[in-house]
Every structure is written in C-alpha cells, then in structure tokens.
Write a structure and sequence with these properties.
With 499 residues, the protein is of the alpha/beta class. It has 19 helices and 20 strands. Strand 18 and strand 19 form a beta hairpin. Helix 6 runs antiparallel to helix 7 and helix 6 runs antiparallel to helix 8. Bound molecules: S-adenosyl-L-homocysteine (SAH). The site of S-adenosyl-L-homocysteine (SAH) has 22 residues, from helix 15 and strand 20.
Length: 499
C-alpha cells in the first residue's frame, strides 16, 4: 500500500494531499465563495439606549423584542397604542410626545445604539434613515429593509437557544411559515437541554481538550438519553445521566476514526435518506465524486474538509487505490470520513473495493444505501422498471466500453418481458444497439435515454433500440445519462410527470 500524507497546511483554505514519495496528488480548495446580503448577528442591547420612532402596530412589535432583550427603549411619537402606554406607566420605557423631525428626536438619536423608524410614512422613515447614517447609528426602517442597516428577524425562542429567521425582507409570510415549522420541530424542552449543555461546557472542555473529541461527546449527548430526559423535563435525571456519561467517557474508544460510505442518490437532494443526511452533517472530511450534486455537498458541515476525487470518463482526479488509501489514512488519524457517492455505493460504484481496503486495515465503517440512477431516473421519467403487462424482470448492465467493445451476456439480455437498464452507456450506445439487435432483440423495442435524471435539467429522449443512437446524436446530450430498454418505455408518454 502507498501511504498518503494529509498535510493540514491550510494555505488560504487549501489542503494538499501527497503520497509517500511526496508527489502532490491534488490540491483542494475548501470553500466556495459565497455572499450574504446581511450578516446575522446576535446583538447585546442590554441597558443600551434604543430609539423607536412611531407608536403604531409595527412599533409595538419591535418594542416588545427590544424590551425582551433588555434595551432602554425611548418611543418618539405623538400617538401611541395602549401597549406603549401600559409599558410607559409600568416604567419599562420612556415615551416622548414629539414628532419627527424635532429637537427631542435629535437629542435621543445622538446617544442611541439603534434607531428603528416605524412611522407610516415612507418619506419620514427615509429621512430618519439619513439622519441615523449621519449620526453613525445603525437603523432599521419599516417596510424598506434596504434603506436601513439591519433587520429584526423572526425568532424561535428556546432560551438560551435562539433561532433567528429572515428572508431579507423578500417574504415575511415565508419567514412566518418557516418559523411555524421550526417551532413544531424543536420541542420546548430543548431550552432545558441547552441550559444543561451550558452548565457542563467547561467541565467537558477540561476533560476532553481536543475539539473533535468535544464535538463527538456532545453529539452523543444530544442524540441519547440525556437529551430525552431533559426534553421531557426531568432535569435531575438528565443532569445525573450527563455527569455519568462524562465520568465514564472513554476518550480512546471515542477518538477512533470511521468511514461512512454513503449513497447520495441520483441528484435531487430530496432523495437522500435521513441517515445519509445525519452522517453528511457529522463528517470531518468528505471525499466526493463527480455525480454528487452541489446542493448535497452544501449540506456538509462548513468546517468539513471537502476533497474531489473524480471521476469523469477517462479523467480520474484520483486513482482508485489512492482513494482507498486516503480513506484509511484519514480514518486512522481519528477523522470521521464521508465517502459520498452518486446513486448507490454498491451499484457500479466500486464501494465494495473501498470497503475491502478498510476492512483489511481494521477501520470501522458504515454503509448507507442510496437511490440508484435506475430507480431515480425511471421514477422521474414515468417509466416503471417492472409492470405486469410489460416486464417481469429487470437487469442493470454497464455500457462502459473496453477497447471499444462491450462484453455483456447478450443472450440473457434479449429475453422478452425484461427491462434492461444501461449505466455509463452514452459513448457505447451505437454498439449496445447493434449488439442487442444482432442477438435477436426486436428492432422496434422501445428505448429511452434519460439525461441528468431527477434534476431540474432532466431530459428524456425516447425512440426504439434501432433509432435511439441517431436521436441521441442529433442532440447536445450531457452526462450523466441512463438508458432504459424494453416495452415499459412505452408508458412514458402516459406517465411522465416531472418537469
Ligand atoms: N452508483 C451510481 C452509478 C455510478 S456509475 C448509482 O447507483 O446510480 C455512473 C453512471 O450512473 C452514469 O454514467 C449514468 O449512467 C448513471 N447516472 C448516475 N446519475 C445519473 C443521473 N442523474 N441521470 C442519469 N444517469 C445517471
């Protein structure tokens, strides 16, 4: 075996991988560039002066949030709703009976940390934004988020856990909908669990000095008994379970690395399994190939190292043996390594070979099946792979040419009432068509080529086994493509639903 050294030299977010002879295998750039319209922050406004101009419904809503965060709120407005009146009477805020512009407002603005323009006049709000800019005070402008500096997000409150949601002003209704979903998804008891985690944070840091070890410890806690007990409100039992977990935590057994061989499905991220998603979000390092779609990669942890290992036809970013060795090296260095493959890892995925190497080196692994291209493309193209009236069996074959030829068990393929699914068959399609006809398949047998199946770019070309090579050649077809041959293809015209 060749040893592969992972140099953690993060030169401008790059990781270099070299083999035992110090040959550079590849350099990988860790993160794609991305832009945020707003930087989400959690701002401490406790006891800080904040000015709200206006006394209507919006002013009330925003004032509530400011008061909840401990701000010293001053309302500048001639008219106010009863809520503001009540809070003023209770001594929780100051109300100045003045309009904008006024000396009173200018005086308040000079000392403010934040100003919120909540009048019902767009012009007045814009003028307040301009004043705030001059005074270098951050502003929030009702109904015109881009005129000010900050937005007040919707909040899911499980103190100390706070989830803030914003659509950047694009759709408050969408924000509300998402908030409802998160509210339903995160039990109220999560607040107690978060408090408990806060109490134990230092103790865990002291026992487990390395960050990966701490991360694993907490992941186990949040996934297990402690979490259940805290969420159910039994804090005494939760605390004692957490103490016990910490006392008995064996650092060595939890620091061993592991490989997750995960099928990412054919492209649509909604086709991932729950388990795939969980492991994708746990991994420290991700080795992925060409067929894994960008939205799926974006589900990996931000700090996870991402390594592209190929493979496009005849263009392998990394040799298979190097991939196998890299998996072993990373796992042996204690990392949780995600080997993310398109479709299912055990269907034309060489998953078996990678796992064999891991087994030989005693590296722990888990395998997560994925939706293979045949199932994904067939479903999204409305072509059932079996059907009582059309096909009683289905075979998957590779159309990969070896020295320009296809070596397949032709006689067993040309059976009637059988569907043939051909992976990697684009280049060899003319050969496939010719050979099947030579071995007795009816020239009129329906055939389909599905291009980039299950994605928004899906395209289905249908014809017969005789005509399909010509039909495909006349179009600018992009990989990956899957070929389905058999009477079931005739159902496409009736059952196509996607796109
Ligand atoms: N393990 C994968 C197959 C890898 S072989 C799986 O189970 O799906 C690569 C081949 O899969 C491609 O050449 C193509 O034939 C097929 N394939 C994968 N994703 C596809 C997609 N979205 N649309 C069409 N074909 C696809």
């Amino acid at each position: 075996m060749t040893t592969t050294t992972i140099l953690s030299l993060r030169l401008v977010n790059r990781v270099c991988i070299k083999n035992h002879r110090s040959q550079l295998l590849f350099v990988w750039r860790s993160r794609r560039d991305y832009r945020l319209k707003h930087l989400p922050l959690f701002l401490n406004v406790d006891q800080k002066p904040c000015v709200v101009v206006g006394g209507g419904r919006i002013a009330c809503r925003k004032t509530k949030s400011l008061l909840a965060a401990g701000a010293k709120v001053t309302i500048v407005s001639p008219q106010i709703k009863p809520y503001i009146q009540q809070q003023t009477s209770a001594g929780r805020l100051t109300h100045i009976n003045a309009s904008y512009p006024s000396n009173e407002f200018s005086k308040e603005l000079a000392n403010a940390t934040l100003v919120l323009a909540c009048t019902n006049s767009i012009e007045t709000n814009a003028a307040i934004a301009a004043d705030a800019k001059k005074a270098k005070v951050l502003s929030n402008i009702a109904d015109n988020p881009s005129a000010g500096d900050f937005l007040l997000p919707s909040i899911v409150d499980r103190d100390p856990l706070t989830i803030a949601i914003s659509s950047g002003g694009a759709s408050p209704i969408m924000t509300r909908l998402i908030k409802q979903r998160i509210e339903a998804f995160i039990p109220q008891g999560m607040a107690s669990l978060a408090q408990l985690a806060g109490e134990y944070r230092q103790a865990v840091r002291q026992k487990l000095t390395k960050l990966p070890a701490q991360r694993r410890f907490w992941e186990n806690v949040f996934d297990g008994e402690v979490s259940k007990k805290a969420i159910n409100g039994d804090m005494e039992a939760a605390r004692s379970a957490l103490q016990n977990t910490l006392d008995t935590h064996d650092i060595d057994s939890h620091s061993a690395g592991e490989v997750y061989l995960v099928g990412a499905g054919p492209g649509d991220p909604d086709l991932l399994t729950f388990r795939a998603l969980r492991l994708i979000q746990q991994a420290d390092v991700v080795l992925y190939d060409r067929l894994v779609s960008e939205p799926i990669l974006n589900m990996c942890r931000d700090d996870a190292e991402r390594i592209y290992v190929g493979k496009k036809r005849a263009n392998h970013a990394m040799q298979q043996s190097s991939i196998n060795d890299t998996l072993v090296s990373f796992a042996q260095s204690g990392k949780r390594v995600l080997r993310l493959k398109g479709g299912d890892p055990f269907i034309f995925g060489r998953g078996g070979e990678e796992i064999e190497t891991l087994a030989e080196h005693g590296v722990r692994f888990q395998i997560v099946p994925g939706i293979t291209a045949a199932s994904g493309c067939a479903s999204y193209a409305g072509i059932p792979l079996t059907h009582r009236d059309h096909a009683q069996s289905c075979v998957f074959v590779t159309g990969h040419l070896k020295q320009g030829e296809l070596e397949l068990p032709w006689r067993s393929l040309v059976l009637s009432s059988q569907t043939i699914v051909c992976y990697m068959g684009l280049v060899g399609l003319p050969t496939l068509s010719r050979k099947l006809i030579e071995h007795g398949l009816d020239k009129k047998t329906p055939a389909a080529l599905i291009e980039r199946g299950t994605t928004v770019n899906q395209n289905v070309i249908t014809g017969t086994i005789e005509s399909i090579p010509q039909l495909v050649q006349s179009q600018d077809v992009k990989a990956p493509t899957l070929i389905i041959i058999g009477s079931v293809v005739s159902l496409h015209s009736k059952l196509a639903w996607f796109g």
